[in-house]
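#onboarding

Welcome to the new folks! Below is a worked example of what a typical request in this channel looks like: someone posts a single protein sequence, and someone else replies with the predicted structure as tokens. Don't worry about understanding the tokens yet, we'll cover that in week two.

Example request:
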Amino acid sequence: MIPYWMSRTEMLLGDEPIERLMTRNVLVVGLGGVGGICAEMIARAGVGRMTIVDADHVDLSNCNRQIPALHSTAGKLKAEVMAERLRDINPAIELTVLPEYIRDERTREILAAQHYDYAVDCIDTLSPKVFFIKSCVEMGIPVVSALGAGGKVDPSLVEISELENTHICNLARYVRKRLNKLGVRKGIKVVFSPERVDQDRIIETEKAYPKKSLIGTISYMPAIFGCMCASVVIRDLYQQPVTTEGPSSVLPD
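Example response:
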């Protein structure tokens, strides 16, 4: 039975797509500016099972852009804050909460622990991101990856594409090159923006660990990336396949 809180979505999609979403299982890795809103949108669409993964704690510098970040949640685990929020949205959701960083074989353990209908990569460090995408491909799990939202301000440039068709975005280029070396060249859906980043807004610092640098962000851009990733998952799951023919032509990096 479709619960009342989903009545507006039911009006839009109809019973069968909603019932399909209610039986699906989605993995979201990374619950920052992109991943937090992505997980929430997937839950609000009625997906019945989710696993969320993030070892980070809320810092007040996250308050400009991250769903779990409030002054009242400072110092708490993002995964636990998001878990409470998702259960308040959908009390019936079957939720697995993993407050940990994933890398190497642990990635494959998590992917093998359940049957996932979709995986979302919102990881913001390069090596774990590449290994996660590669593992999803090898294990036959559909995946969508969020690329660089930091340093960007123009939402009209954000698009859904295939990784091989991305351009200008530095993170996309690094991910693409590493995956190409590992033999993964096609079939990765991504959300990216070709907007050029002001390099003066990037600061290399040890405070960014495990990343190498900090980059300026604005409130709405990570949320837009997260909503677009969620749209890929939701539409694919209720069998309205997402096309990746974006509005822009392919330009050189």
